[in-house]
Amino acid sequence: MTTLVQGTTTDDTLTRDALTVLQPGFDGTDAPPDWVLRRIGEGLAAVALFGRNIASAEQVTALTSRLRAENPDILVAIDEEGGDVTRLEVRTGSSFPGNLALGAVDDTALTREVAYALGGRLAACGVDFNWAPSADVNSDPDNPVIGVRSFGADPALVARHTVAYVEGMQAAGVATCTKHFPGHGDTNVDSHHAMPRIDADLATLRSRELTPFKAAIAAGSKAVMSAHIVLPALDPERPATLSPRILTGLLREELGYDGLIVTDGMDMQAISAVYGMERGAVLALAAGADALCVGGGPSDEGTVLRLRDALVAAVRAGELPEQRLADAAARVRALASWTRSHRAAGGASTESGAASAPGTAPARTVGGVAPDSTTTPGIGLVAARRALAVTGTAPAPTGPVHVAAFTPEANIAVGDETPWGLGPELARLVPGTSTAAYGPDTAAGQVLADAGERPIVAVLRDAHRHRWMTTALDTLLAARPDTVVVEMGLNQAPPRGALHIATYGAARVCGLAAAEVVARGV
After folding, report:
1. What single string gives the DSSP state of each residue in 445-490?
2. How far is the CA of 242 from the CAs of 147, 193, 275, 427, 436, in angstroms?
3. With contact defined as beta carbons under 8 Å apart, do 285 and 14 qualify?
4. Active-site positions?
5. Is pTM, for the whole model, over 0.90?
6. How far separated are the first and last CA of the chain, in Å rounded?
7. Which of 111, 240, 369, 438 could staple 102 via S-S, CB 3.0–4.6 A?
C-alpha cells in the first residue's frame, strides 16, 4: 500500500472510491457475473439493471438478493420511467402510462399515485434507485428522443408533475434521479447518436428548461442526471455533463443542489465519440458529477477497469482533485444509506425528499393491470383511460378487426424489444382480430388487401414526424373513411378517421385503454 504524494489517500482507498462512483450494467438474468461480485467486494457501490437483465419480477428479486448478499448497501439502479421506457416490463409493455399521458390528465394526485405504485413494484424487486423522472420540457415536437417521455411543453405543468412523481416514487422507498439537466426538450438530435445543441438564450433557459429542475430540487429529488448537450448560453465549449459552469456553478452553487449528480450514459456517442469514455469520465467528475452511468451499452469488466484506472491515474497526475473524487464517492454512499433505511422502514417516509404514502393501498401492492385483466383496473389503467382523447364515432365491431400498426424505428431509450400498440389487447376483446406491422416501404394498398372487408384500425406513433406514415394514412382514409385512427405518440396532427383516439403514449396499458373504446364503440 503506497501513500499518494499529493494527499493522504492510500492507493486502496483511491481505487475503492474510483469504483464507488461507477454505475455499470452487466449481462445475464440468472446471477450476477463473478466479476461484478468481485468488484463489489472491492468497492463497487452500484449496478444498473437493463432489459437484458429482466425475465420476471421473481427473477429480478432473486438477482438483487444475490447482489445484496455481497453488500447489503449496494445501490441497484434502473431506467424505469413507465410508459414507453420500461425495463421491468420490457417483454410485455408497461402497466403504467408514461409522462405525457399523466400530463394530459394534469392531476398531480394521480401522477403521485402512479409513481408510488411503480416505485412499490421496483422496491418489491429490490430496486432502490430509479433514473427517472424526465423533467424535460418538450418544446420541440420533432424531438427524436424525449417526446412522450416528457409531461408536456409547458414548464409549469412539467414542474408540478415532476414534483408529484418525485414525491410518489420516494414515498415507496425508491430514490429518484430527475433528468436530463439542464433540459433535453428543445433538441432535434438524439444524444445516443451525436451531440445535441440548444441555442436558446439564457432568459429562455431559466424560464423554461430550469423551472422543473428547481421544483424537483425543492421537492428533495435524491439525484439529478446530467444531459450530454451543448448550451452556448451556459457554456459554449463543453456539454453539460462535462461542464464545471453547469454542474458546479449552476446546479450546485446557484440552485443550491447538494444531492447526487449522475451522468447520462458515458457510452453514448455524444461523449464517447467526441471525448472517449475514459477522458469523459475524468472530465465529468472534475466538473462536479458524482456517479457515472456506464452500463447501457458496454457491460463487461474491462470497461469498468478502464474507467476505474483512468480516474486513479487522473488523481495521481493532478488532473482530478483527490478530494473531488472522495466527495463524489461519499455522496454515492450517502444515497445508499438513505435507500437502506427506507428498505428497512418499508418505504413510507415524511422526511424532506419523500412524501407520505398517497392513496389508500400500501406500497408494493398498488398499480398496474394484469395483461389479461379488464375487470379489476389498477391505477395504471385508470390513468391510461383518463388520458384518452376521443374524437368522432364508430360502431362496436361485429366481427374481427384488422389492426394496421405503422411502425417507425424506435429510439434507443425506448428500445425495439418492447411491444407497443393495441393489437393483442383488442384481440382479447374482439376475437379473431389480426395485427400486421407496416413500415416506410409498405404501400397503403397492402393494408387494404390484408384487411379485406374487415374494419381497419390504423395505429400510429408520432405521425407528424414521419411523412411516409401520413402519406399512407391519406391513401387509406380515401379508400376507407370508416377507418379508426389511434395515435400513440405526441398527437400533433388534427384528428382524422371516423374515430380518432389519442393515447399520449404507447405503453401496453395505453393500448388496452384504447382497445376498450374500439371494442365498445362510440
Report:
1. HHHHHHHTTS-EEEEESSGGG-HHHHHHHHHHHHH-TT-EEEE-S-
2. 25, 17, 10, 49, 45
3. no
4. 192, 264
5. yes
6. 75
7. 111
